Amino acid sequence: MLPAASAAAWRPNIETLIAFRFVQGIGACAGMVVPRAIVRDLHTGADAAKLMSLLMLVFSVSPILAPLTGSLIIA
User: Fold this and answer.
1) Are 20 and 8 in contact (CB under 8 A)?
2) Contact call for residues 8 and 21 (beta carbons, < 8 A)
3) What do you get for the CA distance between the two ends of the chain, in Å?
């Protein structure tokens, strides 16, 4: 995702900006979809339910922790 963001930041026209923003969006979506697909492919039953609940916990807590971590890095 970072290379697409860097490429989008330096585009000279709107067409290539839109193309790189599209690539950036696909990269962001893959981060949410791939872990769920891996759990569904490799685990079943109660084990899969445990891992899915752990994934949901991580996905829901990370937006809370990201600004805090960023402010600590800046400070």
Assistant:
1) yes
2) yes
3) 25
- Residue 4 tokens read as 């697409």
Structure tokens at 34: 């791939």
Rounded to 5 degrees, φ, ψ at 10 are -110, 20
Tens-level pLDDT at each residue, the chain (75 residues): 568 888 888 888 999 999 999 998 898 888 889 999 999 999 999 999 999 999 999 888 988 998 999 999 998
Nearest Cα neighbor of 55 from 33, 71, 70, 74 is 33
The predicted model scores a pTM of: 0.64
